[in-house]
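Milestone M4 deliverable, item 7.
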Amino acid sequence: MERGGRLVLLDFFLVTVSLVTHIVDFLVSGYTAYKQFYMRNYAIVAVTALLAFVPGFITSILSCFWLARGSSQSVRPKLPTLFHVFRILSVVFLNSPVSGYVNALYYLFKRHQALLKGELEALQRSWELMAACMMEVTTLRLYFAFLSICPQIILQVYFWLQMETKANSSEGWLEILVTMNSMISITIAATTYDRTFLQTQPDKETMRFSTTAMLFFSHFFNLGARLLAISLFTSLSVEYVALLLGIHWIVMVAWLMLPVLRSSFQFEKILAIMALGVAFVFSFIKSEGSRTRRKYAFYYTISLVGNTSMMVMWFKHGTYPNLPDIQNFMESWIYYLGLTCHYAFFFTGIVLLVLYHMSRLPGRAASVEIRLSERHPN
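Output delivered:
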């Protein structure tokens, strides 16, 4: 019972943090739009608004589509009417993940009640409902994060490099905090998706806090390396960055489609893979299929080659306006600092990824019933 209580507490913590960071993302988008509007950069305001609107519209359409197709039929009748009203409002205001997180918290509460009462059947039912709800909301959040937050991070770093902002001013520190918040938010989105995907598999055990933390920091450092390389290269040419990322997306989509095309052609899976390919441009995400280690090796080899190419081009051709308070700040050691940070982030992420998989190797097969019995008090 004590172990089951810790697992419920961990799930509650992750859902709460995910909900808070998702709300903060909207506040950050509003702050960015307001700042650029105040500076009369109306084109940037339009881009920022577009980065918030398009992912919100797509996730709302997907939420309605899944509800209509019956993916939530097992979940919908168990929720009070007020929750359905809140879901409709979240769809209308293009913020579907919020209602999903609220539903997940509701099922977590039901799961905790069943755990305390020792009702195994109710515990199993509440776990299944929460797992179905979490799979939907983490997928929506994943799409939203990689369609909106990643481009915003690139823009934030780009503005910080290009604009003559004092590095030691309060405004400079605020920009750094905004970027770090975005990094944490997208890392949480990737981590919770991977964790939910693994826990819904019948042969995977429940992830504890230590393995979840290793997965989080592995995503954080790998995403940091990838976004740093893209952001620095963006300062040279926005057009070439768009071209390279487009090519990367095509390669990832083709790679992910191979298992589907070999089995059967399903239009819904093709659409899902095209959306997931956007996430693969920035990070490796768990997906259906076997031979995960070979996928890791292939993906991170491609990423390392692409990152290195962008870093070398930035190192050779990068030029920036001098910061007013630090003479020649961008003309000397900043290049070596950028290279060092990139490779330190990348290889730290790989080491943490190896440690994460090593911690899950021995005797990890467990069915859903075994996982539930571990939560059930003796």
